[in-house]
Specification:
The structure holds two protein chains of two kinds. Chain A is mainly β. Chain A is built from no helices and eleven strands. Chain B contains no helices and eleven strands. In chain B, strands 2, 4, 5, 6, 9, 10 and 11 form a seven-stranded mixed β-sheet that branches. In chain B, strands 1-3-8-7 form a four-stranded antiparallel β-sheet, with no helix packed on it. In chain B, a hairpin with a 2-residue loop joins strand 5 and strand 6. Chain B is globular, with a radius of gyration of 13 Å. The N and C termini of chain B lie far apart (36 Å). Classes of the chains: A mainly beta, B mainly beta. At the A-B interface, strand 5 and strand 9 of A face strand 5, strand 9 and strand 10 of B.
Chain lengths: 109, 114
């Protein structure tokens, strides 16, 4: 089945810093999403981005489907950005969202 | 829309007891997923329904686990008998179509089996 990798596994930032999170996947996909799991455990939708670039405030994402990767950019990070960021892709049969292992982000005040 | 609604939010039970977790998907969504999250294994898909029909239950750990979707607005995940290793957060998520649109999660049900 499709494999999803994320890097880095852990990231510690000072408030105000910028960061880039990466998601690599092993096969072509037609559905890719980024989620943020906050410290309370809620899974929040960030982007639905099977291809192209989107921006939402301080966050933006780019997926290059032909090269099988997606990037999540966080600018001017805030302590509320802390948590785990997951990339998820729909497998080739359109049946299962496969999640990456996540990137754990800690933003220090 | 109220989003995906799960209940209970927290459940503590003793080994051997039956546990039933409930999910109401977003109205109009045709696909429903049950996931389990643990520190060791991350997010694992347990079962997936499309138009109320189970499509893939290969992630269901064993016969102690069962899931139903009697109608488009309700699904249950049952564990009988429960064991301590079943302790986890169980998430329900719904999707507009079989491979269309965004996956939305409920807030999860945290299960502790003593």
């Amino acid at each position: 089945g499709i494999q999803v990798e994320q890097s880095p596994p852990d990231l510690i930032l000072q408030e105000g810093a910028n960061s880039t999170l990466r998601c690599n996947f092993s096969d072509s996909v037609n559905n890719l999403q980024w989620f943020h799991q906050n410290p309370w455990g809620q899974l929040i939708n960030l982007f639905y981005i099977p291809s192209g670039t989107k921006q939402n405030g301080r966050l933006s994402a780019t997926t290059v489907a032909t090269e099988r990767y997606s990037l999540l950019y966080i600018s001017s990070s805030q302590t509320t950005d802390s948590g785990v960021y997951f990339c998820a892709v729909l497998d080739n049969y359109g049946q299962n969202f496969v999640f990456g292992p996540g990137t754990r982000l800690s933003v220090l005040p | 829309d109220a989003g995906v609604i799960q209940s209970p939010r927290h459940e503590v039970t003793e080994m051997g007891q039956e546990v039933t977790l409930r999910c109401k998907p977003i109205s109009g969504h045709n696909s429903l997923f049950w996931y389990r999250q643990t520190m060791m294994r991350g997010l694992e898909l347990l079962i997936y329904f499309n138009n109320n029909v189970p499509i893939d239950d290969s992630g269901m750990p064993e016969d102690r686990f069962s899931a139903k979707m009697p109608n488009a607005s309700f699904s249950t995940l049952k564990i009988q008998p429960s064991e301590p290793r079943d302790s986890a957060v169980y998430f329900c998520a719904s999707l507009l179509g079989r491979n269309t649109g965004e996956l939305f999660f409920g807030e999860g049900s945290r299960l502790t089996v003593l």
